[in-house]
Design brief:
Layout (H helix, E strand, L loop, with lengths): L1 H17 L2 H10 L13 H8 L1 H25 L6 H17 L12 H11 L1 H18 L2 H18 L4 H17 L1 H9 L17
Helix pairs in contact: 1-4, 1-5, 2-4, 3-4, 4-5, 4-6, 5-6, 5-9, 6-7, 6-9, 7-8, 8-9
Length: 210
């Protein structure tokens, strides 16, 4: 029963993470397939650039919310299983994987930044705060959301280690950071070439994060 309950928590976390909120908002509110506009990414940055900042913020909040909900659901299911933070950390990683590889869109999802933020808002709020500060500084100085996202992803496991998070949480932070950085490969290549889109530049469809 214990194993079955843990597997259920992880599966539900993956499915929660897989809900493509920005895609759904673009369809329901704007009648647009977000995969065919801007960068083609299903993230909140592309949603904001395509349909407005308000809708982008709403999509961002929903994606962060599903990450937090996945961890809280695992906490609830695991409350009598003596699973400690391990089940919550695994569920958080599963939620980010669900967002990146959503089965609802042929396993093509976003980049995991907002969902990961929701996960670590519950698992390691101090580490998340440090990562958010890095994101804001990196984005403000470079005017590139993608670079801010990558820098914040790198900062997350470092902050989790420094702040003494549980071992499972530190591993989850490293896992999510690697996923986020990997999903930004194309952005990093454009940054190296000097062609990555900057905030305030003319729309070009590059530099999307989430």
């Amino acid at each position: 029963m214990t194993c079955a309950a843990e597997l259920l928590a992880i599966a539900l976390a993956f499915l929660l993470g897989a809900i493509p909120f920005s895609f759904l908002l673009a369809k329901l509110i704007g009648g647009v397939d977000i995969r065919t506009v801007g960068s083609g990414n299903i993230g909140a940055t592309n949603l904001a650039r395509s349909l407005g900042i308000g809708k982008g913020i709403f999509g961002l909040a929903l994606d962060a919310g599903k990450g937090a909900a996945a961890v809280l659901l695992a906490r609830r299911i695991g409350s009598g299983l003596d699973a400690g933070p391990t089940l919550e950390a695994v569920a958080g990683g599963a939620a980010v994987l669900g967002h990146l590889y959503t089965p609802f869109l042929s396993f093509k999802g976003g980049k995991g930044v907002a969902t990961g933020a929701g996960v670590f808002g519950v698992l390691a709020p101090g580490a998340l705060l440090a990562a958010v500060v890095v994101f804001m500084l990196g984005t403000a100085l470079s005017r590139m959301v993608s670079l801010g996202s990558v820098l914040s992803a790198v900062a997350l496991p470092i902050a989790a280690q420094v702040l003494g998070s549980a071992p499972a949480v530190r591993l989850a932070a490293l896992f999510v950071a690697l996923l986020v950085v990997a999903r930004h490969r194309a952005n990093l290549q454009r940054i190296a070439r000097g062609t990555e889109r900057r905030l305030g530049a003319d729309p070009g469809g590059e530099g999307e994060s989430r």
